[in-house]
Structures are given as C-alpha cells and as structure tokens.
UniProtKB/TrEMBL annotation:
Residues annotated as domain Ribosomal RNA methyltransferase FtsJ: 181-270
Annotated GO biological process: methylation
Pfam families per record: FtsJ (PF01728)
Lineage top rank: taxon: Bacteria
Keywords for the protein's UniProt record, in alphabetical order: Methyltransferase, Transferase
InterPro entries listed in its UniProt record: RNA_MeTrfase_FtsJ_dom, SAM-dependent_MTases_sf
GO MF annotation list: methyltransferase activity
CDD domains: AdoMet_MTases (cd02440)
Name of the protein this chain belongs to: SAM-dependent methyltransferase
C-alpha cells in the first residue's frame, strides 16, 4: 500500500482532499499541517498506479505530492536526524549512482525537526555524493523529499514529473526582477510553465483587467502585441511601449473585429460569472484555436460548485484544457481554454 505526502495552497487542503476522495474512493487521508499538508494512503493501488491515475486526472487543488519511502520517528537531535537521512539515502542507493539528485526539505510549523531546509540538505548531501550522485537544485533525475511533521519524518525518492511540480511542496519561485510592474505577473509566468504554453508563440493578446500591467509587461517582453482593457491606469513604464494599446474602458463595453486576437488573458477582479459572460461575449474576437488564460475568483462559499458551474458556461465557447490552483493563486484558480473552431 502506497502512502503519499500531499500539499495544497494554505486553506485549500480540504478541497484537494475532497477531490482525491471523489476520484479514489478507497483512500484514507489525515492532516499534517492544517489546511495545507496531509498524508494519503492510496488503498490497494501501487505507487506507480496511483501516480499514473493522479497525472491522468490531476486534482485542481493538489499542488504537490511525493511517495513515502520511509517513515521515522521525529527527533530534535541533529545527530539522530542526520543518521535517519543517511539511512534513507543508503536504502535507495542503487538508484542514485551517476544521477542528478535534488534534496527538498520541508517541515510543518509544529515539528521539532532540528534543521532548517538548507541545513537538512547540507546534512544529506555528502552522503549522496559518497553514493555517486550529483547533488543539484534544478533539472534533477530524482528528488529526495523530506517532510518533517509533528510526530514523523517522511522520506521519499521520486521522479520530478511524478511530484506534479519539481519545486519543494510545489512552491514555485521566480527571481524578483527589478522594476516588476506587479506581483500578479508571477501568476502568468507560473501558468506559462504549468500549462507548457510558451507565450512567445502568440502574436496579439487581449488583456482584460490589465492594470497596473504585470501580465501585459510579461506579454510585451515575450514580443506579443497587447490590447489592454481596464478603466484603471497602467504603470507609466508601459505607456509608451510601441506594442501596447490601452483602452481605459469597462471590458463589458469593448468590441473587436472577428479573429483579432490569438490569445486572451483575463485577471479581472470581478464576480466570476460576470467575467465569464464578458469573456464569452468576446469569444468571436478570438481566432479559432486561440488560447485563453483566465483566473476564476472563488468568492463564493462552495469553490468546487463555483468551478463546476463556471466550466459548464465556458464550455459553450471554449474547450477546457486545464484547471489548476497555481502556487501564486490566492482565492482563485487559473484555467487554460481554447476557442472552439
Ligand atoms: C488583480 S487586478 C489585475 C492585475 C493585472 N493582471 C496585473 O498583472 O497587473 C484586477 C483589475 O481588474 C480591473 N477590472 C475590474 N473589473 C473590470 C471590468 N469590468 N473591466 C475591465 N477591468 C476591470 C480592475 O480595474 C483591476 O485593475
């Protein structure tokens, strides 16, 4: 029976658990860090079977998983903890020789684990090198995951792709570039990676709810022409950009010729049903097969129901490609849709 450590955005673990319960009725789940991290016992399924099923029907609110290869009692002694990490590395030694291994260490706030993440990595790195592995931060062949909970230390070895994200706990970090127009830009950068959708492949984007211009600035940097719609002002660093047209209007009032855009992005802070109506009305302005990246604001008490209702509406004009709560999403999820031909 396979066990996994699973992580969702703060406060959203109950929804990830509900999704998993619906998809895999036999599983058992228990909380480790409230609202965020939990343990899943995957019933009869083997680790490989469960990962395959999970990737086929990826839960919206599940950010990260790793399989538990060993569970040890938690200790506040650095010596004992380093020995537990070394024991696990030896257990999986045959997989490590000549391979690139990333070590990812996280702990629950209630854990007595005696290391910081960096110290935990430093404690196990020499052992991995001795076993013939190259210790790396990114582009690893294997990820050695460590999660320190209140009572247990969970350790696992898995392929980056099988964890749903190759970042520790799915916490995607971007370099904080000087002069970033808004933190919202991270959402689009993360969507580009998560949906494997290179933004530079688009010619002309319609950005609804664009101000102050974080998403617009990412698109302009990728060489995409942008028509930005927002009654609010755009950041002054963008105003003279030759590829930007800003319409200071409500998105409900704008009209465009058919097929004007091959990308629509929308991060409008409005009721998600209104947003859906506006995006649907503007669908003819998109070319056949055009993509849309839209944040769905979860302002109602039943997020799963809200998402289900909205997707049913979006499906009238769009094919739904992916629905995911990204690390940079707060009370929202991001969808990638394609305009039906
Ligand atoms: C979260 S901000 C968008 C941030 C933007 N994506 C960025 O990267 O800087 C939401 C924006 O939606 C705009 N908005 C809300 N309702 C709108 C509407 N009906 N039409 C156009 N823009 C709207 C607001 O003025 C606000 O600037």
């Amino acid at each position: 029976m396979a066990d996994f450590i699973a992580t969702a955005n703060p406060g959203f673990a109950p929804f990830a658990m509900e999704e998993l319960r619906r998809s895999f009725p036999g599983i058992q789940q228990s909380g480790l860090a409230p609202g965020e991290t939990f343990k899943v016992s995957a019933g009869e399924a083997s680790e490989e079977e469960w990962v395959a099923l999970l990737k086929k029907k990826e839960p919206i609110f599940l950010r990260h998983v790793f399989p538990v290869g060993a569970e040890e009692p938690i200790s506040d002694s650095q010596e004992e903890t380093a020995a537990a990490l070394a024991r696990f590395a030896s257990l999986v030694a045959d997989k490590l020789k000549g391979k690139k291994v990333a070590v990812q260490v996280r702990k629950s706030p209630s854990s007595i684990f005696p290391f910081s993440s960096a110290e935990g990595r430093d404690a196990v790195a020499p052992v991995l090198r001795e076993l013939g592995a190259e210790v790396t931060a990114r582009d690893a062949d294997w990820i050695l995951s460590v999660y320190a909970a209140k009572r247990s230390l969970y350790l696992g070895l898995s392929r980056p792709d099988d964890n749903l994200s190759d970042w520790p706990g799915g916490a995607v970090r971007f370099r904080r570039d000087e002069g970033l127009v808004s933190r919202a830009a991270f959402k689009l950068l993360e969507a580009e990676k998560a949906f494997n959708l290179p933004l530079k492949s688009f010619m002309h984007a319609l950005d609804l709810g664009a101000a102050p211009g974080g998403w617009t600035s990412v698109l302009l940097e990728r060489g995409v022409k942008v028509t930005a719609v927002d009654p609010a002002e755009m950041d002054e660093s963008l105003l003279l950009h030759p590829h930007l047209r800003h319409l200071r209007k409500n998105a409900a009032e704008v009209k465009f010729a058919p097929g004007s855009f091959d990308l629509l992005v929308c991060d409008m802070s409005w009721d998600p049903h209104h947003t859906c109506r506006i995006v649907s009305e503007l669908a003819p302005a998109l070319s056949a097969g055009a993509s849309g990246i839209i944040t769905l604001k979860l302002m109602y008490r039943k997020p799963m129901q809200t998402i289900q209702d909205l997707l049913a509406e979006y499906k009238k004009h769009f094919e739904i490609r992916k629905v995911k709560q990204l690390f940079h999403n707060r009370e929202e999820v991001t969808i990638w849709v394609k305009r039906r031909p």
